[in-house]
From TrEMBL:
Gene3D superfamilies on file: 3.40.50.10090
UniProt GO BP: tetrapyrrole biosynthetic process
Example GO molecular function: uroporphyrinogen-III synthase activity
Residues covered by the Tetrapyrrole biosynthesis uroporphyrinogen III synthase domain: 32-232
Descriptive protein name: Uroporphyrinogen-III synthase
Amino acid sequence: MSLSVLLTAAEEDAEQFCASLAGKPVSLLHHPLERYEALGMNSTIRDTLNRMEDFENIVHGSKRNARFFIEKLKELNKLKDARQQLNLALNQPTADYLEEENIPAIHPRAEGKAINLMEFMLRVRRLGTTLYPCGDKTSEDLPGLLQELDIPVEELVLFRLEGPREEELQQNKNVLQDQQPEVVLFHSRRSVNRTRAAFPDLDYDEIRVISGDQAVTDKLEREGIPVDRQAAGSWESLLEELEVELPRPSTGR
């Protein structure tokens, strides 16, 4: 017996989370309502990548950010330049991805917390101008935290967040018409609006709701959706809350 769980996060964001569900009694209904689309090569991207030597550090806040960065480096044949810089990764999956591209990367702690990375930069005195590949309107705390420490940061926008394509959305709607999930994961405040708009027929009186953090819970409650469990703002904590809901194996005599 498995638990049917609806997740609407972009594939790139939920990659590790989905991998962690392998072997667990979960029937995952992963219907992304978000997708990331690379920006075309523009003068800002080209000029920034052509002056890589101006940066003391390159900070990769996620594997997703690193992927779009690598794509643009390959377009300009600039991978060699990036390999000569100090590349800092927020977590192990991001560091592993960079290593696959033969870019040596350092990450301070396995937990992937911004404070650990900032403490490392202070400890090794890497306080010069930092390049931070990122997306348009994808809220990330790390650049602001670095600026608070007077570390100059240049955010390089490489991709944008979009909604699902119409044909994908219709396919997702068709699936959920036949199978209503037992649990819905709201990983962000944005996911509340997108899920309600895409799947208006979900019956929250019959569904267990897990919220990503307090801000998501507040938004859900304002929308009249009761929250059963609340995570602590990370994918790891969301997994922990979901595991509490999973069916337990029967203990035979």
